[in-house]
C-alpha cells in the first residue's frame, strides 16, 4: 500500500491548488493522510480526486472542516494514530505512546519540521509542510509503504 502523508497545507494562503510536485506523488497513491491545518475543506475535496483521504483537525482548521482531533486506523495490518499537534519535542515519543497505546506509527504535523523517529516500538512521523517550509530548506511530504502489517518504507521528500 502506497500512502502519501501531508500536513500544514494552509490553504488558500499557501495552497491555491495542488502543487505539481505534490500532485506527482498523490497521483497513484492508495491513500492520503493529512495531519491537519488544511484551513479550507476544498483541499480535502481536491486530494480526494487522487485517492481516499483521512484527515485530522489542526489548530487553524475551522468548524467547516468535518474532521476529528485524533484518528486511529489500521492500514494493511499497520495500526496508525493521527494527531495534528504532538506537543513539545521533549518527551514526544513517550507522550504519543500514551496517547496511542496500540499504534505502530503516529503521523502528526503542526511544527512544519519533518521528523522520522522511532524508539523501536513506536515510530512517529511528521511529513513537514509542502507549502510553508518556514525555516526548513524545502517544503516536504511523506511517502509511506505498508506491506502485510509492516511499514517497509518511510521517506520525507522535498517538493519545493
Automatic annotation (TrEMBL):
GO molecular function: hydrolase activity; metal ion binding
Stored SUPFAM superfamilies: Metallo-dependent phosphatases (SSF56300)
EC number: 3.1.4.-
Keyword Metal-binding appears in the UniProt entry: yes
EC top class, as a word: hydrolase
Domain of life: Bacteria
Keywords: Metal-binding
InterPro entries (alphabetical): Calcineurin-like_PHP_lpxH, Metallo-depent_PP-like, Phosphodiesterase_MJ0936/Vps29
Names of required cofactors: a divalent metal cation
Domain Calcineurin-like phosphoesterase: 1-148
Family: Belongs to the metallophosphoesterase superfamily. YfcE family.
PANTHER family: VACUOLAR SORTING PROTEIN VPS29 (PTHR11124)
Protein name: Phosphoesterase
Organism: Nonomuraea deserti
